[in-house]
UniProtKB/TrEMBL annotation:
<dbReference type="Pfam" id="PF00029">
    <property type="entry name" value="Connexin"/>
</dbReference>
<dbReference type="GO" id="GO:0005922">
    <property type="term" value="C:connexin complex"/>
</dbReference>
<feature type="domain" description="Connexin cysteine-rich">
    <location>
        <begin position="141"/>
        <end position="208"/>
    </location>
</feature>
<keyword id="KW-1003">Cell membrane</keyword>
<keyword id="KW-0965">Cell junction</keyword>
<protein>
    <recommendedName>
        <fullName>Gap junction protein</fullName>
    </recommendedName>
</protein>
<dbReference type="InterPro" id="IPR013092">
    <property type="entry name" value="Connexin_N"/>
</dbReference>
<feature type="transmembrane region" description="Helical">
    <location>
        <begin position="76"/>
        <end position="97"/>
    </location>
</feature>
<feature type="domain" description="Connexin N-terminal">
    <location>
        <begin position="42"/>
        <end position="75"/>
    </location>
</feature>
<keyword id="KW-0472">Membrane</keyword>
<keyword id="KW-0812">Transmembrane</keyword>
<feature type="transmembrane region" description="Helical">
    <location>
        <begin position="128"/>
        <end position="150"/>
    </location>
</feature>
<comment type="similarity">
    <text>Belongs to the connexin family.</text>
</comment>
<feature type="transmembrane region" description="Helical">
    <location>
        <begin position="185"/>
        <end position="209"/>
    </location>
</feature>
<keyword id="KW-0303">Gap junction</keyword>
<dbReference type="InterPro" id="IPR000500">
    <property type="entry name" value="Connexin"/>
</dbReference>
<dbReference type="InterPro" id="IPR019570">
    <property type="entry name" value="Connexin_CCC"/>
</dbReference>
Length: 216
């Protein structure tokens, strides 16, 4: 990972965010991204290798693992992080578009040039809508993934033993998940931080709408 480029993106997002947006970004970076990179990825690295069923029937363990873990938990978490951070980059791109347009008009107009955007980063017009929709999208993505995790892992917990009777298993077999307690703790941590991020996004959206109504 190119950390200097990543730091530049973070500075850009911070520059055009409100106070709530900066808190949201800090939570995502420290409590979600870093936890994912430093710890969570290693916890789930042995998912399939240590998924053990009490049978020697060829294919039974693979079928049972695919049934109980249709999507890799850690890849699902990574997809959530990607989708939830993309809207912030769209805001930066919108500001960059405004700045480039302002520069082109300045070069073409010369002394008679008049500003279109006095402050390209100020949330007015289209940029206000882009920022507001990005907040709604981020909250919506987190809500959808909370539901997906709940469907895959009931009550966001992983049992120590699961019973499987799918073919080609000869009968009902017991399968054991590696480190279920540790994985449950990480899952609950992820769910908690996601809920906090949803609340912050909704508060920020309410703040933007309220501020605009007050100005009008």
């Amino acid at each position: 990972m190119n950390w200097s480029a990543f730091e530049g993106l973070l500075n850009g997002v911070n520059k055009y965010s409100t106070a709530f947006g900066r808190i949201w970004l800090s939570l995502v970076f420290i409590f979600r991204l870093l936890v994912y990179v430093v710890a969570a990825e290693r916890v789930w690295s042995d998912d399939h290798k240590d998924f053990d069923c009490n049978t020697r029937q060829p294919g039974c363990t693979n079928v049972c693992f695919d049934h109980f873990f249709p999507v890799s938990h850690i890849r699902l978490w990574a997809l959530q992080l990607i989708l939830v951070t993309c809207p912030s980059l769209l805001v930066i791109m919108h500001v960059a578009y405004r700045e480039a347009k302002e520069q082109r008009l300045r070069e073409a107009g010369g002394d008679s040039y008049r500003h279109i955007y006095t402050n390209p980063g100020k949330k007015r017009g289209g940029l206000w809508w882009t920022y507001l929709l990005s907040l709604i999208f981020k909250a919506g993505v987190d809500m959808v993934f909370l539901y997906i995790f709940y469907r895959f892992y009931r009550n966001y917990t992983l049992p120590r033993v699961v019973k499987c009777e799918l073919r080609p298993c000869p009968n009902v077999v017991d399968c054991y998940i590696s480190r279920p307690t540790e994985k449950t703790i990480f899952t609950l941590f992820m769910v908690t931080t996601t809920c906090v991020c949803i609340v912050l996004s909704l508060i920020e959206a309410t703040y933007l709408v309220g501020k605009r109504c007050h100005e009008c």
